[in-house]
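Duplicate of earlier report; Phosphatidylinositol glycan anchor biosynthesis, class S input re-posted below.
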Amino acid sequence: MYFLASLSERRRGQLAALSIAAVVIVVGVPLWWRTTETYRAWLPFSQIKDLSKLQLHLSADVEVVFARGTLTPEQQKKLPLTQTQDEEHAVDENTVLRYTHEIKYRTATIMEEEALGKPTAAEADLSLHMLSESPCGSSVVYVIPEVSSLLPENVKVYIGQRRTAILRINAEMRAGKTVEQLLAVLKPQIKQVLQVMSFSHTDITAALSDRVRFNPGSKESMTHSMRAFTSSPGYEITFSLLNPDPRSHRLHWDIEGAVQTYIQPFLTKLSPLANFSIDSQMLHYAMLGVNPRYNNDRGAFILHADSLAHVINPVEARLGSNAASSNPVLNFLLYVPDAQHSPLYIQDHKKMDVPSNAFHSPRWGGIMVYNVKNLYGPEAEFPVNININMAEVMGVFLTQLRLLVGMESSPPPPGFLVAPCGSVGLADWELDRLMWSRSVENIATATTTITSLAQLLDQIGNIVINDNIAQQVSSAVTSVQLAVAELEAGNLGFALQYSKETILASEKAFFDPSLLHLLYFPDDQKFAIYIPLFLPMCVPILLSLLKMASEARRRYREKQAKKD
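Output:
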């Protein structure tokens, strides 16, 4: 009886060990593995890989309108409807740029002839704009005969405030020529007009700086690319009035009215590119941080160009920062020297006075020195009430703002007359040029961000990819594809909108806090944590299984011995 009970108890122990081992292996290990694995949502890696090789195709519509007296009847009959001009540039092994201008030819209508008969080119530009407004990204070139008095004698091309240009053709250019020969002669001149009014290869390659490392062709292009702020969904503009000595001057400035009059129209026209917010402040006892030198011959203080680099940091410490926003800040400072350091003039590297008495710092802002000593006599009682001429100040700040947002200041080609920007401060074709550049810049930045994120997630398998990150990445990839397609179709407005969406989605996914590798344990740390928990439980089970295997082998050997 004792032997049978011992055998039955041993049997139950073996079955219990087997049951526990089976539960651990079949249920416990898969459950532990499932609950501790890193969740990684699906990402379109194949489409992201395609973005590493970027082929951008920019298309723009151009209309060439011939006025009366520029074509013979025979040339009018054979005038083609359209021609296409293509250019292709391989920036590097992974980036190819292609430019297409779809040129449509026609003769001027009666109403356009009346508009071209205005006394001045500015009036003609306005009348042509009232007749029909050209779509965003397109250009219209009106060809007028040499006998027309619309343009000054030494001007061959007039660029208006809208998307219209007026080109004068010489009689020798069209005399005795077929229409094909005439168009061949006009082709380089129209191309030169489009270099001013539409996208240019220099601007587009500069916009690819986040994706392609290249050496600018000239010092001027390098300065321009470094001066402007990079593309952003929004910008903060701060106007600051610096009064180093309130005991000398009591300053009054109508900054709100000046912003509404001079700055807001410009920003409203730039609204397709970004959102702008404006604030202002007045800082007392704010010094420049640099001691200007007194010039006895002029009886004035001089701030040389070599000292301007040391002005920014001391002043910036007093400006404060907007911690609630991550948008870039454009600072515009108006500095009124105190009575002991007036007047104060800024000189360039050639020791010549700067006409605006102002300077700007790339991707930071601008500073203007406003002298007021000539506004009161030596017998005046301090503090003197000073009303600042905001028209003079805002004219300088608007010029600096144009440079900081990316407007080129290069002179036009010889023989070109560019119309003033007017009260808005921005021509339609200038806005188009900036939209072309910003669209390409957004696409280049987004593709770099997306491909970098994909490489990071592919190399480090312990990073969790949540569904919202996968959604942002997929949205960014889709928006990039749509932006590229709209650029090829010539729809500049839609291309810019999709490019803004893709850069927002890519940046949001890349900087998501859940993509921090240190928040998740690598495999060696996981084993170091789980072994002390599982080892005490697994050792008895393993010993029981080993003992059962040993007894099974012993019984097998005894059974074989009995058979022998």
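The chain has a mean pLDDT of 84.

Merging into the original ticket.
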